[in-house]
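[agent] plan:
  1. take the single chain provided in the ticket
  2. run structure prediction with default settings
  3. attach structure tokens to the ticket
  4. add a short note for the reviewer (M.T.)
[agent] executing step 1
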Amino acid sequence: MKRKRSLLCLIVISLLFVTGCWKGRELNELAIAVALGIDKVGNQYKVSVQVVEPTEVAGKKGGDKTPVTTYQITANTIFEAIRKMTTVNPRKIYPSHLRIVVLGESLAKEGIGQALDLLSRDEEIRTDFFIVVSKHTTAENTLKVLTKLETIPAVSLFSTLQTSEKQWAPTTTVTLDQLITTLVSEGRDPVLTGLVVLGDEEVGQEKRNMEKVLTPTTLQYSGLAVFKKDKLIGWLNETESKAYNYISDEIKSTVGYVTCPQGGKITFEVIRSKTKVKGSVKDGQPQIDIEVRLEINIGEVQCSIDLLETKNIAEVERLANSKVEGFIDAAVKKVQKKYKVDIFGFGDVIHRSNPKEWRKLKKNWDHTFETMPVNVKVNHKIRHLGTVSNSFLEEMRKEE
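[agent] step 2 finished; step 3 output follows
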């Protein structure tokens, strides 16, 4: 009995020190932000925030309103702009559910470092959102486009980038923590996926953009933005972006094709990919060796070839090896000669393999990177031919 009384007293005393959530807020007092866009206008920042319309998202039937609203304010700092939004929005912006942050191309060229400071410092902001760069347009314009399938554009952008990275490969997902880690690291410069607006930007803002079978205006991820420290200096095209992900060992799955010896194409699906990047230093000269091992399935045959013949399988593998080696090598050389920045992390590889030599090389690494030999070796293995060995098209040709 005494033990029970003592326990009860302890609970009562503990309750005296238990407080409610002093920062708690009612949902109807907040504007849930799902996307943030940052552009540079002169010496000021133009901040766009995409906010969910709860009644439209929760309702079973579509209303007259759009599912999101975008608010925009220009101010001297990003934090100031977000607070200043209370002059046009009756609710305080709540950023804990951000899915995507779009950095304007003009801002990226000037430098994204200062823009990232707020995102890393604000205790209400989680760091699991993706960061991208608007390409040939502003961040403001990308956040105005309404999307289909996913009624909230920010969710659509998040899911599309996630799926594209896994299934297609020329895109890459980058979170705030990953970006900052790369910015402060030695021997690597960052990349971010580009976001473009296809079609009429004004039509994209209207609800009819979601109601047509063929969407007039869409958002598409396109290429990788190349940075020198925190400044955008150029873009990689689709093939070069895929090469970047091969080197970074970030290929989950993708599709490629080779041209058959007698014309036509064979398309294959990459089901497994593993890249090993090794660094060495000989007589003060660093060297990088890249080995890519791929397992593929035949996905489509548009040429005359007998895939039951072992020699033909070997020839397809050889052609695939040559093609992938070619575009990886071309991408590396372009970055070395044109951009002169190590986005591949070769410096980090040298650092891990030979810390003593790296201490000598790091002071002038960008210059060394320009002329450093990089050797690429690719090995494809065909695992499956699909549900049929040879295409029915081959049988049709035989009958002709």
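[agent] step 4 note for reviewer: The chain has two domains: 28-236, 239-400.
[agent] ticket updated
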